[in-house]
Amino acid sequence: MRNKLVEFRNVSFRYGEEQPWVLKNCSFEIYENEAIAIIGHNGSGKSTIAKLMNGLLFPQEGQIIINGRNVTHDSIWEIRQDVGMVFQNPDNQFVGTTVQDDVAFGMENRGIPRDEMVKRMNETLSAVGMQEYRLTEPHKLSGGQKQRVAIASVLAIFPQVLILDEATAMLDPRGRTEIMKTVASVQEERHLSLITITHNLQEVVQAERVIVMNQGEIWDEATPREIFAKRTELREIGLDIPFVAALSDELRKTGLPVANEVLNHEELLEELWISRSTM
Amino acid sequence: MNNTLIIGQYVPGESLLHRLDPRTKITIIFFFVFIVFLANSVLSYSVLTIFALGSMLATRIPVHYILKGLTPVWFLIVFTFILHLVVTNEGDVLIDIFGFSIYSGALIQGFAISMRFFLLILVTSLLTLTTTPIEITDAIEDMLHPLKKVRFPVHELALMMSISLRFIPTLMQETEKISKAQASRGVDFRTGPIKERIKAVVPLLVPLFVSAFKRAEELAMAMEARGYQGGEGRTKLRELKFELRDFLIFVVFITVVTALFFTRHY
Q1: CB-based contact (8 Å) between B186 and chain A?
Q2: Record: contact B170-A101, CB cut-off 8 A
Q3: Can you give the residue range of the structural domain that contains A53?
Q4: Spatial CB neighbours of A117, under 8 Å, sequence gap ≥ 6
Q5: Which positions, given as ranges, span the membrane (chain B) (predicted)?
Q6: Do the Cβ atoms of A112 and B3 come within 8 Å?
Q7: Is residue B236 part of a domain?
Q8: What is the CATH classification number for the domain harbouring A92?
Q9: Based on the domain organization, do B99 and B170 belong to the same domain?
Q10: H or E element: which one contains A61?
């Protein structure tokens, strides 16, 4: 049995007394070394979940427990040690004047001695493949590179949970692949729980479990394959199904037997190839 | 997009002056500004000039580049000189043109004042030429440290400076983007009477400010998420270290000051 790292117990949240509830009575659990995706359309409450997880916001009702600790005003600094977060805008989370200063920022905040800092900086920068850019200034980096630096600076404080809050939303397709690859290798290496928050269904493919948010409520919680099977319902709550799923639908309409729910190009290819050869 | 943008006028290099501790450079320049006013003889000016030119050569930055950097100041230096020629009435009359007399005292005075001016500007510009803005920030933070006792927010000030430095290029790129976007919507920044052109800046500044505030808010959140809770208990990656060369430079400087005092009356 894996350790429970994140637990939401009947959490409700709104930004003010008069405001509508952004989250309504949400409960879920995330375990160690697990890859989770949280998807939903804009305003479904998915980013609020991320901010609640490391004490940037506090719920009005319910409890959030991170690694055995209740999220309160007193525990946020320990919680932020366990929960690292990468935000959407690559520019607005880059604090340092150079790559190495930015990676050091989180460590400096925690009073880590300089020797240790340099050691961890080298480790994490090479983990995201940015070591040669140590002295580069942020305006000379691409969006994808900046996000990799952001991941490195989060990793440098050894979190147990890594949250990507729409971290690829502002990147071009190449930057997006770059980040997804980096994250996958990092998760493999560091055994983190990974929480990907996105509205892009393509990105949930790597996840073990998907939580679908709709209007502040958990609409569904299942594996990516099961989620993809509900394409009409997904469209109804404003989510676009990935190209491969749409393509396999169309192929099925033309009479080709695409039996299983496919997640990516390789699987679709496999399906088609097998169906041809058995005909 | 201007990717080669240099903030300030820092010229990267490996010279002795580049490698000096920024605190050494700031301290020496601080005192230099005072001692320049002590010079009052040909010999004492020579001592200061040799020091200034020597430092300039030690930067290994091409001399014409440094002097080009002083272009806007040349005008002031020449202006000071001319002003003194006209205003001062000491010494013997050298030339008399249409009732305007130029006195020998004026020539000397004008020369001395412009020289002071030139030396001051030259030496202070060597600081920004050989020191990155972030090094200067670190040095200032370190040197203002004693003020913490009187609750002066030294760390916050330094952080503000370094964040401003980090965002200058970002905001410049943004300005460029907005001005292109507004130009494509028909805003004319380049032609028309001054009044119209000033008005045209408004649609540039408003979006820029809006986005700067949004950035600030997001940055604050990102900093908090990364455990920022003020200057207390922070360690630093960038370290300032006094080395032997800093000590030697101080010795050189003290020698210069001593020489200055001995040559004052010659």
Answers
A1: no
A2: no
A3: 4-241
A4: A104, A107, A108, A156, B235, B237
A5: 26-53, 65-87, 93-112, 244-263
A6: no
A7: no
A8: 3.40.50.300
A9: no
A10: strand A61-66
